[in-house]
Please model this.
Amino acid sequence: MTYHIADGKVVSPEGCELNVAHHCNLGCASCSHLSPVFRRSFIDPDTAARDLHLLAKSFAAKFVKVLGGEPLLHPQLIPILHQVRASGLAPHITVCTNGILLPRMREDFYAAVDEIEISVYPDRELDEEKMARVRAYADEHGVLLNISHYSHFRYSYAEHGTDDEALVKRIFATCQIAHVWRCHTLYEGHFFKCPQSVFLPQVLEGAKPLWEDGLRVTDEPDFPARLLAYLQGSEPLAACRNCMGSVGRRMPHQQRTRRDFRDLQKHSTEELTDHRFLTLLEERPDADDGCAVESADSWQERLRERAAAGVSAPAPHSPRARKRS
Model:
């Protein structure tokens, strides 16, 4: 299913993302939103309300995913969730979290959401008692819990990028984030195909201006047509020169400090590309990336295998890395 216009709105088969906190209580090495390098920063509820209601005039999504950073850090999360509902942008609200703060959330949180996606990482999982409390609240309010266990991730970006236009086009064309999962992002009055095009320009030196990859949301009559053309566009974004899309090399999950988060990414795009997976995605766009498992038992087995094999991440820097012009 693809995009189409109905009743004056662009209809998406997937969702729209709203990042409410740029920072996080973890420092995941492969964070595609680059949360470890952002200081404490929250979206303003009034800004969120304005953008949600404006976009809802021209766009209809299957769900709105509220995330970050870590969204549960936002002190005004509940009012924002109410604004998401009131906007009518989508009938379903999902909150994506690492779960650490879920035991602190009150009933008003569970009453405001339809689904909670929990990403569980090694040594950061909730104990059985806390998880039982979360399940009880979710069951009481009819909230779906979607739990994924991660032992690995893929490199999300390369500090030095690439000048290889053909490689950039292949990475964009196979990007599950933009084309399969369709993680379209609403940010500061602009609509973006993916969150990476929001966050990479704010971190990388010499990057193109942030707004170049997005489309300003308006209530002009021709906006739905322009939004549809933007979503159907086949040209890579400016951020794609550094973004690994879905084809970064797989690495074991690890925590990094704010100071050393970027050291791990100090490579060229060529060095961090999983060429075998790139070829696979060109044949099967929805191929599994091999990072998550659905079963906690399978996850523990994978972690034991990883430890036994002494798996480690690549060196943080290579003299062959080439800066892009």
Notes: The chain has a mean pLDDT of 91. The two ends are 38 Å apart (CA to CA). The first helix runs from residue 45 to 55. The CA atoms of residues 102 and 134 lie 7 Å apart.
